[in-house]
Hints:
Strand order of the largest sheet: 3-2-1-6-5-4
Protein name: GAF domain-containing protein
Keywords: Hydrolase
Organism: Micromonospora violae
Radius of gyration: 41 Å
GO molecular function: phosphatase activity
CATH topology of the largest domain: Phosphatase 2c, domain 1
Structural class: alpha+beta
CATH class of the largest domain: Alpha Beta
Amino acid sequence: MTDGSPATARPPIAPPSVLGDPARLRALADTGLGAAPDEAFDRFARLVSDLLDVPVALVSLVSADRQFFPGAVGLPQPWSERRQTPLSHSFCQHVVDLEAPMVLPDTRLHPRVRHNLAVDDLGVVAYAGMPLTDLSGRVLGSLCAIDSKPRDWSGAQLRTLADLAAACSSELRLRIALDGAQEAQRRAVQAHERLELLAGVSETLAGTLDVTTTLRRLAAAMVPLLADWCLLTLIGPTGLPREVVSVHRDPARTADVDRFGELLRTGLSPESVIRAVLRTGQPQLGSVASLADVARGTTHPEMPTIASRLGIASYLSVPVRGVGGTVLGAITLVNGGQRQPFDDRDLLTAVDIGRRAGQAVGNSSMYGEQRHVAEVLQHSMLPRLPVVAQLELTARYQPAADRVQVGGDWYDAFVQPGGDVIAAIGDVAGHDIEAAATMGQLRNLVRGNAFSRPDEVGALLSNLDDAIRGLRLATAATATLVRIRPQRAGVHEVTWSNAGHPPALVVRVGGAVEVLVATPEPLLGLARRSPRSSQSTSLATGDTLLLYTDGLIERRDRSIDDGLVELAGRLAGTDTLPLSELCDLLLASIHHREDDTALLAVRAR
């Protein structure tokens, strides 16, 4: 330590080995005291100064490399402001080393301390120090009286100093006990928070089947409760990161942590901790970390610079394991210098989270694959729309959110040999492979039953009832069947029949919306043989006929009738929208996809 004092040729004093005893240092730390004034210990120093009539009195606590004074009277500058000295200026270290009082009438005559720099720099000539101990008898420091001239310490003075040291030790023990109680309370709170976190993580991970959403929700659950910032890494087929989600507790650091995560995907060196976890599946704990660790673990020179802004003082990294123990990725937590370093308890918590995350990621991946297969299968069952000079046809199909089953919604349109266009839409009950298979059969029956036949659409649906019963198709289905007779110019004739399906709508030129309401008729295949009715309307140039399934209007919190009114209101004034934009607008209006949705729109040209 440099204090402006002249250089000296005196040999340095090696600190006693007892100063570095870990148990003693832990007890010293548990006092919560440092190089700052503390009123209780300043009071002890004043009592020593008054009762022993000395100019300087100190409550001195000794660490492995310094002594500091929570209580002090009479120190000269700059020491009175600093409230600490290096061991080169410490007499109290010898009280700790000896674990006994040290009483010196004239320090300049004592071989153990005569070269101590405190003799000249602090004017320590006479010294009397009594040990300050914890409950286990470990000496933490000294309560000392100091005079700037030689002094014969009387027995009464030393007894007074010993009594005050005993009282001062009691205060230290109270501080340690208070710190222990606070630490126990802190650990209890942490344990409770971790239990809540683990329960919340399970609930969070169960709330979605989308991998990216899973990772972001997990990161948000861990920061800031467990860490200042975190990186969630998933690996691809090559074993290297393919997706990284990064979160920092400080929103102002979002750009930095996102950039760090982006560079991480391609910037891990062979010495990277994360890469080691991904390769071996073994967790890593760094209770002390620095930018040098980042530099060793990365190949992008920008990453240590970013890490310095994000803060790094400790880290841990644990594997995300899937079924069978396969490593799917890693969770890396980082703390800055203002937070306690990670310990074994943190590591165990993170390992548990990694295990739960692995199950969720595995389920999400399986769901994604199944959903892709289901959507491909569903779309393979949907037809290609015909091209008709007098009509524009557009269709959409959208599966329900967070579900991998194929559904029973369908649409169809085809041209009769005479030029009429048959359009149909329907919904088979159920959301599984059986419903999809029945949907495919029903659509083919509609085609086979209607193609090349001039019958009214109501009669065609009656024949379809017969076919369903005759083929013993165990199904409940709704449908609307429409025949459009295109005209080269003027108005197109439209007839329709509805078997328990939501009513079709017509958006007229000018924006008015007409609901094609008909007498309610039963679902397909459920009624006894009875004629079905046909209804008629027309489409002028620019009019749009909309067929749809109930996923467009049905919600748990409202009736279908209310949904129909809302849909009609949404369609009002949309007659000038391109047909594809109109269909996209309708699908985008579904905020919570609770059911599959099919649309078939026909506009007269």
